[in-house]
Amino acid sequence: MSENMDQDPELDQILRRLPYPKAPATLTPSVLARLTAERQQVWWRRPILSWPLAARVLGMSWLFALALGVAYFAGGLAAESPLLFSESTSSGGASSVFGLLALCLQVISSLGAAVEACLAVVPMTVWWLLGGGLAIVYLSCLAVGTLIYRRMFPHHS
Q1: Banded pLDDT at 130 (limits 50, 70, 90)
Q2: How far apart are CA 44 and CA 58, in angstroms?
Q3: Within its chain, how far is the Cα of 143 from the centroid?
Q4: Helix runs in 8-123, H state only
Q5: Is the dihedral of CA 137, 140, 146, 148 positive or negative?
Q6: Is pTM beyond 0.90 here?
Q7: Nearest 10 degrees: CA dihedral of 91, 97, 74, 70?
Q8: 37 in the Ramachandran plot: left (φ > 0), alpha (ψ -120 to 50) or beta?
Q9: Coil, strand, or helix at residue 79?
Q10: How far apart are CA 73 and CA 81, in angstroms?
Q11: Contact predicate 68/104, CB 8 Å
């Protein structure tokens, strides 16, 4: 279309003389109302990247600690616990940080060994079926959640 306008100077002049389209009178108040409503939302209902920094750090720390705790106790390391309650870690300071780091590495290696053992024992067909089933369940939950969201918060165009 722009090629035709470059070739026809009369059409180009006519189109330049046309006025710009005006926005409807209801556009500005509706946009301002929407922005005001979004600003008045409580912080935890907003996207996570707009949360206060302290809340984001605390939330991520809590999730990391929870994941570490679940991995630690699920791996059967709680009964042994040489790194948490040994004399070198109870003396405080840097040794407790290194003890926690060693614990994290031990948990990660235990989880890796568990995954490796599962992969060796269970046939690959079962893993593909499980993955497909999980994908179907995930997509179903996503579809149902989308339907519920659209029913609860209708968007007026």
Answers
A1: very high
A2: 13
A3: 18
A4: 9-17, 27-39, 53-74, 87-90, 94-121
A5: negative
A6: no
A7: 120
A8: alpha
A9: coil
A10: 10
A11: yes
Tokens representing 154 are 């209708």
CA–CA separation, 58 and 63 (whole Å): 9
| Contact criterion met (CB below 8 Å) for 51 and 44 | yes
3-state secondary structure of 113: helix
The angle subtended at Cα 77 by Cα 73 and Cα 79, nearest 5°, is 95
Residues in the chain, total: 157
| 59-76 pLDDT tens trace | 899 988 888 777 666 655
Q: Which residue has the tokens 């005001």?
A: 36
Q: Name the DSSP letter for residue 83.
A: T
The token pair at 109 is: 């290696």
75 in Cβ contact with 111 (< 8 Å): yes
Q: If you search the block for the tokens 């929870």, which residue do you land on?
A: 66
DSSP 45: G
Q: Amino acid letter at 53?
A: L
